[in-house]
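Lab notebook, design round three. We kept the backbone fixed and only want residue identities now. Task for the bench partner: fill in a sequence for the structure below.
Input structure tokens:
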């Protein structure tokens, strides 16, 4: 266990622990969440729902799960918020490749047996990472549905190494006196009270149909106007439910400064008008490509509208009159933004 902790720690990761693979109760809750429609338009979650029940679907001879995290809250000197802003995890180089490659290297260094089968999973594989993280005893799932690693907070990107090696499981650390059990946020409701769209109205349940992160990242169409005001604060993703969490007041900070990108300083007017070449230059190799060029342009137009950006009128004219711009979502968003601006102008 010490070797695992040292090996992952030397690469800027947090070793959270080792657990068995039984997630039956968590999987049942996941299916109920899907049945209630909380996944919104993320049909890939439905297609892969059955695979998440058993890690053997990912690695047939799996025996243990080694769980690790990459802290991504900005260093204190870089923590000043930019508005409209982007979620903290998206300000980095794409974490998937880093965690895949270096998670593999960390495990191999600690367990130098090439014959042992393993697979590193980083949120793109059908694995219940938060459930496995909670089973290690290193933390719990909070009312905002994030995994909270005690004093380290919740700004952790989770990775799991499934392995055929049977490793002794870690045990829960002694509870702090202020907490009754490992799955208890106490009476705190800050994440629910501060969520601007009501996505966390039910504790421990995220309704993606109301979540700003869903609309600005996963949704592929036009964003309903009821959510537009909040793009003035976050135009890609949202950290509000984590920003207000007491566990993040002095949580773990990003030590891998080599991963940082200055994406929050890119002018929205540049994003709204970018072509494929500029899109690849600005956002290539980052997690923001998840929203695709169309989604980023759409988001930028809305954020400019609600913040009263003076460059917007000229940009709208260019988009609406450009016959070569065949992005249907961007065109429709531009038309809606034009009406939105007209409706806000004082009547004579």
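Proposed sequence:
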């Amino acid at each position: 266990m010490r070797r695992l902790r040292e090996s992952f720690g030397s690469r800027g990761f947090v070793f959270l622990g080792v657990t068995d693979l039984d997630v039956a109760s968590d999987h049942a809750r996941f299916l109920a969440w899907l049945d209630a429609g909380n996944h919104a338009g993320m049909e890939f979650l439905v297609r892969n729902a059955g695979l998440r029940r058993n890690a053997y679907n990912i690695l047939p001879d799996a025996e243990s799960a080694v769980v690790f995290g990459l802290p991504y809250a900005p260093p204190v000197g870089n923590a000043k918020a930019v508005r409209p802003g982007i979620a903290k995890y998206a300000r980095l180089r794409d974490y998937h490749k880093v965690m895949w490659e270096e998670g593999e290297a960390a495990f191999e260094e600690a367990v130098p047996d090439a014959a042992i089968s393993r697979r590193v999973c980083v949120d793109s594989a059908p694995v219940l990472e938060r459930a496995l993280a909670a089973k290690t005893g290193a933390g719990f799932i909070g009312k905002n549905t994030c995994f909270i690693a005690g004093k380290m907070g919740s700004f952790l990107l989770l990775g799991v190494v499934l392995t055929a090696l049977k490793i002794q499981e870690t045990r829960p650390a002694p509870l702090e006196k202020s907490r009754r059990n490992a799955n208890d946020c106490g009476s705190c409701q800050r994440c629910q009270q501060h969520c601007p769209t009501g996505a966390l109205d039910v504790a421990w349940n995220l309704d993606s149909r109301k979540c700003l992160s869903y609309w600005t990242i996963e949704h592929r169409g036009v964003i309903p106007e009821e959510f537009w005001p909040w793009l003035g604060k976050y135009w890609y993703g949202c950290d509000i439910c984590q920003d207000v969490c007491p566990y993040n007041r002095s949580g773990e900070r990003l030590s891998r400064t080599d991963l940082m990108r200055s994406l929050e300083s890119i002018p929205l007017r540049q994003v709204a008008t970018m072509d494929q070449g500029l899109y690849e230059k600005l956002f290539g190799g980052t997690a923001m490509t998840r929203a695709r060029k169309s989604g980023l342009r759409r988001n930028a137009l809305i954020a400019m509208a609600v913040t009263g950006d003076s460059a917007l009128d000229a940009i709208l004219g260019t988009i609406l009159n450009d016959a070569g711009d065949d992005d249907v979502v961007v065109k429709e968003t531009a038309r809606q933004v034009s009406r939105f601006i007209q409706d806000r102008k004082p009547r004579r």
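Keep this in mind before ordering anything: Residues 328-344 form the longest helix (17 residues).
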